[in-house]
Structures are given as structure tokens and as C-alpha cells.
Amino acid sequence: MDHTQLIQSEIGKMNAKEVIEFQNQKFLNQIAYVLKNSAFYQKKFTDQNLSVNDIKSIDDLTKIPFTEKQELRDALLQQPPRLGANQAASDVSLVRIHSSSGTTGRPTYVGLTKQDAELWDQTIGRALSIAGIGPTDVVAHCWNYSMFVGGLANHLGGETTGATMIPIGIGQSNRLVRMIKELGITAITGTPSYILYLANVVRKELGVEPAALGIKTIITGGEPGGGVPATRELIESTWNAECHEVMGMVDIHPMIGAECQHKQGMHFTVPDLVLTELIDVDTGEMLPIATGVIGEAVYTHLERYANPILRFRSHDMIEILGTECECGHNGYRYRVVGRTDDMLIVKGVNVYPSAVEDVLRSIDQLTGEFAILLEKEGVQQDYLNIVAEYANSVDSSEIETLKKEVEKKIAEILLFKANIDLVEPNTLPRFEHKAKRVYKTFLGENITK
After folding, report:
1. Which of 12, 156, 360, 445 has its CA 20 to 30 A from that of 409?
2. 259: closest CA among 250, 249, 271, 268?
3. DSSP string, 358-417
4. What is the mean pLDDT of residues 5-32?
């Protein structure tokens, strides 16, 4: 497929009525496939007294029970080996298996048939094209290649844009900074934490500012940051490059959202492969996908063969920013507000680490690196202890005043009480993969550099 075709899928050219008709037919085909081949969903339907005949259109979607991550973990053990009770394709048809990180529990495994892999390649390429990657780019791909879908899968998808992909992975930072000029690298992909970490490696190894290296495009994902205004501004000013956020998840698709050149939120890029619902996180009731609405995203595969999923609760809280864009890409635009399992409630106020990051990075006297220390179990907290680094420019005599100013700004903007502990620059750990921001000190977790 020519890279220009990747920017707009066929569904991206359809009007709203045509999109619904297209998705509806794929949905019914997927339901029939799932109930024929997945023991996991056969049982879920039987437990609800549902059959394939009860699902006549997308309007019947709410009859199907939600699927939780823990259910998928349990299903792996119900029918080993490989993909467990939700394996819907034969062993011999599987061409690749990826794994989740397992940071929130036992890892889950996701398989691909040849057809799944081809669909991934095309749609990852589509998303990266929307984010500005094309045939003239030489891309240093700095996501973990070890089982993580953002590594190998996004690399292969990136090749469909016509770009030259360099498989850097993580742990190769010193080598990478020497390769930037030698290979004419124009773009870098990685977590926001890694992009900022790499900037310091450039300064140390080359003795120059990253902005002097000629990087044009930076693609971030894997954690909050690329869509956080203060963090994006820091990345762009540090590298003198355009920063675009992308996102995905191992259970659904490696790349489901990408920002175009207008950077007004991520476009949902796979309406031909994945159906989105928005629900109230407390009641589970469906919300409209309309500008300004915030809810938990729930995803259903429209075309997946190895281990398809129906009504997967992502626990990502997203805000719909609009349904049109100057770039011409149809579908909704959105930003990730936070994760329901990362959310803390401080005296009745919902707090996400990404919001804390935005405030701290907007303060010039701080480096932007921070850690939240929880002294008691549970979402409900009376206050938050936050450790933050002050910048090199701050004199020791200014620290107490700065501490009060930071606490005041958090109270004014985020409406909760924080106890700020300011520490010296480079005290907190830097991360090449996903940054850890919350530490449960009541379980003995400590900040280690």
C-alpha cells in the first residue's frame, strides 16, 4: 500500500451513516466468529443466557457483559498452553505472540495470525503517517523490543510508511547519540521520560544541546506526557522538534490514536478494526461520543482472529475534544485524562499523576521530575506527599519559599493539599521505558535512582 493511502483509510472517507453500516456488518461477522471459536466468550454468553441470535446489530452491544483484564489473565490458565480459553485461531495459524508488561498483575499474552499481523502493519503505518512520519524520515525507534507491542509491532508498522526504521530499543542511548548525525536521523520514538532522558545523554556525550541535532519529529507514547502541555513544550523546546502523541494497548491494538500536525488531540485511527464505547466509570452506563464528554473507553474488536475481545474495559479515562479536524481525518479526537486505576481521591478531588506532572513541569524552578508517596492503602487519601526536584538555578536559600509556592500552585490549580519535599537535581530516577510516578510506601516501596 502506498504511504499516502495510509493517512486515510477507506472508512475515513465515509459519512457517519456509511461508517455505522460498515462497522455494523463487521461487528456481526466478529460476533459470529467469536462465538464459534472462543471458549471464553461461549461461557460468558451462556452465563448471561445470550446466543448469537440475540445480537442483531451494534445496538445490542450493551447486552454483552464487559471484559476485564483479570478475566483475560484467568483465561490463560484455563486452557494452556499459548493463549488460553480465548484463543480463537488454531495453534499453527499463530505467527507471533506478544506480552503485556505485567506491571499491574500477571502478564497477558496476545497472539497474531498472519491476517492480524497484516492489519496491524497497515493501521500502525496509518497512525504514524498521521503523526508526520513518511518516506523521507530516518526513525530511531526507542521502544522496548522485548515482548512489548510498541517495539517490534510499531517498528514493522512504521516500515509501511516508507520511512527507514532503526531498531534502537532501550539501553542503547550512548550509541544512539553518535548515530544521530552518522545516519541522518530525523525522528525519534519513545516514552516522554526517555526522550527527556536522552536529551541529557546528548549533552553529556556530545557536549551540545539536543536542539542543534536537526531532529524534526518526536513521537511519544507508552505513558502520559506527550499530551501534557508543559511536558510537550519542554520536549519541543529541548529538541527544536514537533512532538506528536500516539497511544495503544497490547490487548486491543498497538496504536489506536495519533496526533496530526494540528495537535488538537489524538485521532482515533482504527474505526475499521475497533469499536469504541464511552461509559460512566461508576455506573457502566453508555455516554455519547460528543465534544466535552469524559468517560472510560471500552473497546470491541471488529476484525481480530487470534484472540478477539468484546467490550474490554480499558480503564483509560478519555475526553472527547471534537469530531472534525482541519487535516480532514474523520472520527473523534481525544486526550487521555488518566487511568481509573491510577486515580487518587484527595478530600473528594480526583487526582491523576499526569495532572500533577503538568503543574510541576510548568514551574521553571523545578526539573519536572517527581514522585508521589502514598502512606496509606486505597484510592482515598487525605493529602499527597510529593517529592520534586528543584533546578540547578535554585539557591539553597530559596528552597523553603519555592516549596510554599509549589504547594500553593497545586492547591489553586488541582484543588487539593500536597506536602512538597524538594530535593537536589538528579536525585530522582530517570527512565528509559515507562516512568514510575506513584510509590506505595506503606508496602515498603522506595524511590531508588
Report:
1. 445
2. 268
3. HHHHT-TTEEEEEEEEE-SSSSEES-EEEEEEEPTT--GGGHHHHHHHHHHHHHHHH-S-
4. 79
Tens of pLDDT, residue by residue over 236-263, are: 999 999 999 999 999 999 999 999 999 9
Q: How confident is the model at residue 119 (pLDDT cuts 50, 70, 90)?
A: very high
Q: Which listed CATH number (3.40.50.880, 2.40.240.10, 3.40.50.2300, 3.30.300.30) goes with 344-443?
A: 3.30.300.30
291 strand-pairing partners:
none
Instruction: For residue 349, give every residue at least 6 positions away whose Cβ sits within 8 Å of its Cβ, in sequence order, or none.
Output: 414, 415, 416
**Stretch 75-102: mean pLDDT:** 91
H/E element, 322: strand 312-322
Is the peptide bond prior to 224 cis by the omega test (within 30 degrees of 0)?
A: no
Partners of residue 366 on adjacent β-strands: 390
Residue 238 to residue 121: CA distance in whole angstroms: 31
Amino acid identity at 423: V
* pTM, entire model: 0.85
Neighbours of 106 (CB within 10 A): 12
- Beta strand 294-301 with 274-279: parallel, antiparallel or unpaired? antiparallel
Q: What is the rounded average pLDDT of the residues 31-59?
A: 97
The answer to whether residues 266 and 333 touch, using CB atoms and an 8 Å cutoff, is yes
381's CB contacts (< 8 A; 6+ apart) are: 344, 345, 346, 374
Running DSSP on this structure, what letter comes out for residue 448? -
Q: Which of 31, 29, 25 is CA-nearest to residue 310?
A: 31
pLDDT in tens, 380-419: 898 899 999 999 999 989 999 999 999 999 999 998 989 9
Cell of 122: 497497515
Supply 80's cell numbers.
494452556
* CATH, range 1-272: 3.40.50.12780
Domain boundaries, the chain: 1-272, 344-443
